[in-house]
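Response to reviewer comment R2.3. The reviewers asked that we include at least one raw input/output pair. We reproduce the pair for RIPR3 protein here without editing.
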Amino acid sequence: RSCSFTGFSTVQSRKLAKSLSRSSVRSRMSLKPPKAYNSLQKGALIWDPKPLQVKKIFEALKKGLNEYLEAHQAELDYLSGRHKDTKRNSRLAFYYDLDKQIRSVERYIRKLEFHISKVEELYEAYCIQCRLRDGATNMKQAFSLSPSTKASRESLVELYKNVQECTEDMCFIEGALEVHLGEFHVKMKGLVGFARLCPGDQYEVFVRLGRQKWRLKGKIETDDSQTWDEEEKIFIPNLHEKFEIKVTELRGLATILVGVVTCDSINFFTTKPQAIIVDITELGTIKLRLEVLW
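Raw output as returned:
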């Protein structure tokens, strides 16, 4: 299929190369320096964009933002209805307090609408760069199969630069999109182990999301309740990383690995708290309960 591109003339390929160069996202968008983004910190630039993963996160993020928008719009409609009723029948102080609430909700709705439009703008720019990179890659493969001439070699060099530039722009947009993912508030709800959990047992739970870590210790009390040294942790969502959860049992100076699991974060972009119950052991004899609020 790539051979069908060999009919392009050198002039046409150079025109495409110039078009690709002019389409650089950084020439059309003002992005912050790389150090502002999780995936671009400490010089660890990831030159491996993942369009399918970005698409899944974008769709989940947009759905969650629209859920928040609908909820606040419903709240605004309710307050507006009360506002009309209280204008005639209630005290002046209560009327002005209700008016203040309405203005606050309206401001939040405008922020949400701007947030959604910004996310859509970033993803649209990402898709454009992805298509340009695919086109340049196909042309590069086609030229590599054609007879080698000075003109074809020059075209290959130019196309290689364009592929690299589009890849770089995609990585920058991924970093910019991460800024708009919000926060995950993760709450510890305890272990469930039936006969496996006994009074006096001590456990350590280690949760990782990219470079973010949460290590907490807990103990099974005599009344079967559990005490943990921490109950909540805030994580910043990441486009490419999954939650990694490791549970170990503490026995004196020794530690025994109970189990390790990974958990995708795509389902957490929603208005309602999400309960997570994961099997720590292969047979499910010990489960970990968490709650995630976005």
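Strands lie at 184-192, 202-209, 212-220, 226-228, 232-235, 243-251, 254-263, 274-279, 287-293. The CA atoms of residues 149 and 155 lie 10 Å apart. Further pairs are available on request from the corresponding author.
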